[in-house]
Amino acid sequence: MAADSPFTVDAEWLQQRLGEPGLTVIDASWYLPDQKRDARAEYEAAHIPGAVFFDHDAVSDPNSDLPHTLSSPQHFARFVGTLGISADDTIVIYDGPGFFSAPRAWWMFRIMGVYQVYVLDGGFDNWKAEGRPVTSEVTRIAPCIFHAEFDEKQVVGLAEMRRVVETRESQIADARGPGRFTGAAPEPRAGIRSGHMPGARNVPYSALSRDGELLPAPELRKLFEDAGIDLNRPVVTSCGSGVTAAVLILALETLGHSDNRLYDGSWTEWGGLTDTPVETGAGRISEN
Is the pTM of this model over 0.90? Predict the structure, then answer.
């Protein structure tokens, strides 16, 4: 396993096991428009041998107006079943930079009842830089039945998020960058207010890894504590659209903090409404 997290594996561990029965490798890369990277095109050009492509948009709830909304367990099961993924597999998930979109897929599999699921430390960019095997060959897939056991308690909806903000019954950890959190930088999606939920603390997902690898547990702990997160209390994570909030979940679980949940609508939902309280800067409530 990589570093001191029970939820990651390193490149050498994975390379030694490629092709073993019961091992599934998933490319779950996804990028923001300003990153100017095409995840599917990159996968088709080069991927880890045997990897299947996990399309975050295709697995999302088709009936939601919000991006990347968690789908029903039935939709999720049908989608991953077409990829030949079984709930009994040992699953290793990667993305390009290491800890961006892969933890979102990791989180989804876990709340659907799969616990032998890991994120590749270092990501595909480091895998390639180290000269490890890649291929452009199409992965042969044998569709199967995926049995989902959905744990809905791990997901926070809008109504509950309103209560959390009002009562402070759980802490809120926001994974967006400092500029978006304070409101100094605009949101990338049109019509979304800038700022953060009252009482939220900023733990940028990008600070939790170095060179594509998850930080050691002592450094992760310090980052959360320095942000004002009490690791003895419940935490709800949020971000822009629910993707990088899962990076915080993985880091919290690495620290043994299991009382955490993810606000799936995240800032796209909260900041897109007109009746939700928003703070900017040092805590001023926005009147927008």
Answer: yes
